[in-house]
């Protein structure tokens, strides 16, 4: 759930980009923390390995965190943006936005398909659609993912955002009603309908 992952942070001095490079060499990640209730944006640093573990493998929501800022205590934060080195693909800087735990927030979470569709049992192929969906909830209630049961999908059928049942207390916040899954009929595959057509006697011409 949201805010379940705690990241320890401490203040850093704002200097040149070379200074930021030295921080990274020491295993630290430069970050900026800003938002309502803060007099000014704060320059902080996190342990890079802790951040990477939380960002890549955390079972909680990977957009919402609790920042335990040295000297300030725990604060709810939204990972607003981050920069990735084009060569190493490592995150080299991140921006966190302070959120009010009592106010709803909207974040994107992964869509996870569950179950084996009826149409797949009949020879169809399950094709994934949208990989993420926006949800609105209190920060602490934000899910890590939205699980979609696709067992009822038949051949040629799709399931869209509007047909997804969100977890209790969560609202879906989509604009376009995109498909999340489709059972595709393989080219050349004969369905019951096409088999019946082939078995029916041909109509006589005039």
Task: Describe it.
- The protein is built from four helices and 13 strands.
- The chain has helices spanning 17-25, 48-57, 118-121, 192-199; strands at 6-11, 28-34, 42-47, 64-69, 73-84, 91-98, 105-114, 125-128, 132-137, 146-149, 158-160, 171-172, 179-184.
- The chain is α+β, with helices and mostly antiparallel strands and 206 residues long.
- The chain starts with 5 loop residues before the first strand and ends in a 7-residue tail after the last helix.
- It has a six-stranded mixed β-barrel. A four-stranded mixed beta sheet has the order 10-7-9-12, with no helix packed on it.
- The radius of gyration is 24 Å and the shape is elongated.
Structural class: alpha+beta
Task: State the order of secondary-structure elements, H for helix, E for strand.
Answer: EHEEHEEEEHEEEEEEH
Strand order across the largest sheet: 1-3-2-6-5-4
Instruction: Name the shape in a single word.
Output: elongated
What's the structural blueprint in terms of helices and strands?
Elements: E1 6-11, H1 17-25, E2 28-34, E3 42-47, H2 48-57, E4 64-69, E5 73-84, E6 91-98, E7 105-114, H3 118-121, E8 125-128, E9 132-137, E10 146-149, E11 158-160, E12 171-172, E13 179-184, H4 192-199
Parallel strand pairs: 1-4, 2-6, 7-10
Antiparallel strand pairs: 1-3, 2-3, 4-5, 5-6, 7-9, 8-13, 9-12, 11-13
């Amino acid at each position: 759930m949201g805010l379940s992952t705690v990241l320890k942070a401490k203040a850093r001095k704002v200097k040149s980009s070379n200074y930021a490079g030295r921080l990274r060499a020491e295993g630290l990640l430069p970050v900026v923390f800003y938002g309502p209730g803060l007099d000014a944006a704060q320059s902080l640093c996190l342990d890079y390995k802790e951040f990477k573990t939380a960002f890549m493998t955390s079972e909680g929501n990977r957009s919402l965190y609790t920042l335990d800022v040295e000297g300030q205590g725990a604060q709810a934060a939204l990972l607003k943006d981050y920069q990735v080195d084009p060569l190493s693909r490592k995150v080299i800087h991140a921006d966190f936005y302070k959120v009010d735990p009592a106010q709803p927030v909207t974040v994107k979470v992964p869509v996870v398909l569950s179950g084996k569709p009826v149409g797949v049992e009949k020879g169809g192929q399950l094709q994934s659609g949208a990989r993420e969906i926006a949800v609105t909830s209190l920060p602490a209630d934000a899910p890590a993912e939205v699980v979609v049961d696709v067992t009822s999908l038949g051949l040629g059928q799709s399931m869209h955002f509007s047909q997804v049942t969100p977890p209790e207390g969560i609202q879906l916040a989509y604009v376009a009603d995109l498909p999340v899954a489709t059972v595709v009929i393989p080219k050349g595959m004969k369905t019951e309908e096409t088999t019946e057509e082939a078995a029916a006697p041909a109509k006589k011409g005039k």
